[in-house]
Amino acid sequence: MRRARPGAASRGGERALTSVRTGDGPADPDERTESTAQRSEQERPAPADEPRLWHVTLSVSGPATPLPDIRRGLEQLAHDHPFLLTSRYANDHAEIRYWEEARDLHDAAAVALRLWGEHRQTAQLPPWEIVGLEVIDRDTYHQRIAEGYGPPPAAPVGVHPF
Fold first, then answer.
1. Are strands 52-61 and 129-137 parallel, antiparallel or unpaired?
2. Run of H or E including 107
3. CA gyration radius for the chain?
4. Which residues contact 72 (CB under 8 A, 6 or more apart)?
5. Whole-angstrom Cα distance, residue 108 to residue 98?
6. Could you tell me which residues come within 8 angstroms of residue 33 by beta carbon, excluding any fewer than 6 positions away?
7. How far is CA 64 from CA 89, 92, 138, 159, in A?
8. What CA–CA distance (Å, rounded) separates 80 from 22?
9. By three-state DSSP, how is residue 138 classified?
10. More reliable by pLDDT, 2 or 94
11. Which tens digits make up the pLDDT trace of 3-45?
């Protein structure tokens, strides 16, 4: 009999699969009670391909630009991207906050990183670069607000100077 550690390659080149007990139920699946099975169903996370809401904060910066031009561009961006919550701006930087619906953080971040560049021409945005990006899930956003951390909810929706 050959001994190997769990998960090590077997003689046929396939990996041996092993189970790891989590400690919150019987070791034998046949011994699960109905309440354990129901609890497992309720605690199961949503499927990975189901979209979720992500709160995005995008920071951009660059050469000084006249404030009316920045405001007009950000207002056009808000029109083009309807989920935009709020934008704050100064003559050399801006912060855009909005909700994005995406399957996972990677998808939400990818959309956010393309936002400025893809709308630069149509919204006549300044040629600034992205200098910061924060993407957090909805629960984390609400937890931060409840604990007094992070920016307050975007009460004045729209485009505002810093």
1. antiparallel
2. helix 105-119
3. 24
4. 124
5. 11
6. 26
7. 11, 4, 34, 18
8. 48
9. helix
10. 94
11. 444 444 444 444 443 333 444 444 444 444 444 444 444 444 5
